[in-house]
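Practice problem: predict the structure.
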Amino acid sequence: MEFSIKSGSPEKQRSACVVVGVFEPRKLTLAAELIDNAARSHLSDIVRRGDMEGKAGSTLLLHNVPGTLCDRVLLVGLGKEKEFGDREYCDAVRSAVRTLNETGSFDGTVFLTETNVRKRSAAWRVRQAAIVAEQTVYRFDQFKSKKDKVRRPLRKLTFVVDRRNELAAAEQALSEGQAIAEGMALAMDLANLPGNVCTPGHLAETALKIAADHKIDCQVIERDEMAALGMHSLL
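Answer:
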């Protein structure tokens, strides 16, 4: 998936979908309020009717919201504001990405990364969002004869930060998050491989390839060396 960082107003985003949060009970986040102002209380009316309570993990996809430049607006329930911490934030991002991927949005502009999380910086929020997004769309179907394909999978996410002076740190955090997610995906791929494929030789080849790609040292030891080191449970 492709990622980017930006700063801007939600109602001015030209995107397939803009993602904003709602706290329980029925409290719009700042980004949602900005859209609501541009839409002449359209979101407030929806929330007031009870279509979105703000319950953690809930989502509501809105089409053609007036006053905006995006195709859709996705409301994501964040739970109670006083209880909104690391786990709740990651769950909200996961719900958003899953909904975007399942509803045919090629791209999404995510304002959840602006939402305050206790004792966490904007860089942390961006890093975790990248990791969670990649985990959410991860699939292991290498050996399936008939693969379950998403008709219009999510291809790009833009994470928004509140202030321009946060952009540099957020860009660095995004790179870190992507690297961590890539490593996690590789680990999951190896764990999901059957034993007759993921042999010690395959693991060694994978390690050597990583070393070559990133210019790091890698030493592969043979059975005799393993025995000398006392690694008998692996022999």
